[in-house]
Amino acid sequence: MRHLLDTEDLSRDHAVQILDTAQEMSAVGEREVKKLPALRGRTVVNLFFEDSTRTRISFEAAAKRLSADVINFTAKGSSVSKGESLKDTAQTLEAMSADAVVIRHWASGAPARLANSGWIDAAVINAGDGTHAHPTQALLDAFTMRSHWSKLSGIPSVGADLKGMRIIIAGDVLHSRVARSNVWLLRTLGAHVTLVAPPTLLPVGVEHWPCKVSYDLDATLEAGVDAIMMLRVQAERMKASFFPSTREYARRWGFDDARLATLDRLNLKDTIIMHPGPMNRGLEISSAAADSVRSTVLAQVRNGVSVRMAVLYLLLAGEIRDPQPNSKQNP
Ligand code: CP
């Protein structure tokens, strides 16, 4: 594997290898070893054409913890504003000896274009492209679920994957690269995913995704859930006609205080509440839910560093193994 572009084409073997390596990386952090020499002499370029807090900073932290040099590029304030193309921008940065390019772009498909064009030799890592994919977010979400449930006593071990776990992904699915990447990865790891959204915020063709689809958050919760992942309402990508009123959205599709109480009423004591961030508090998630003991929002951010260390290490140190010929790609 040379690049990480999406989870749809990520084999189970590679996904588990990344999650297991992230586990080792997080153990390094717990022992308070601040740096590993693994990528000394390598250069990681963060190429961000869209805003980011978590992804950009955690890729930078991950690269530095592996002793790589880091170049941060944001489109704002760069020669992109003078019309410089993606090709010229990427080649300019590679001329500064980039070994990996971590790219976030507003256009779906930009990372794949960079990886498959022959413009550069560096490994390409998709840090979120348009409404298409955000593979490292999905990997850190899976890592967070795996860590949470494997720490619990009294439940069967989830082992290397998430077999049989019931996961709801709710909200603005239409614009969510996080939802797409999670659906594919969670399917590969054996979980059962239900998407819940207003009809206007579901993409065309969603019936062909490997998951169930519902418009009814309460009914889906009542059926039982191990993790509920709330999605950000992406107002910046939205036409007014897509969106029910804010009040209606919060009432029918927001994870509010009443739905938080539902988890207690159903005695779902190990169910976690996730959100990739940034959150619209009071819209898709209430503050009580976001700050509750069930919330993994900050654990997700913390785990993002370990997962991105694993991805950089496996791609740049050339350690990622191709699956054995007789291994199962997908369940
Ligand atoms: N979850 C996520 O991608 O957050 P940022 O946009 O802050 O990177």
UniProtKB/TrEMBL annotation:
Reaction catalysed by this enzyme: carbamoyl phosphate + L-aspartate = N-carbamoyl-L-aspartate + phosphate + H(+)
Domain of life, per lineage: Bacteria
EC number: 2.1.3.2
Keyword terms of this UniProt record: Pyrimidine biosynthesis, Transferase
InterPro entries xrefs: Asp/Orn_carbamoyltranf_P-bd, Asp/Orn_carbamoylTrfase, Asp/Orn_carbamoylTrfase_sf, Asp_carbamoyltransf, Asp_carbamoyltransf_Asp/Orn-bd
UniProt xrefs under HAMAP family: Asp_carb_tr
Protein name: Aspartate carbamoyltransferase
Taxonomy of the source species: Bacteria, Bacillati, Actinomycetota, Actinomycetes, Micrococcales
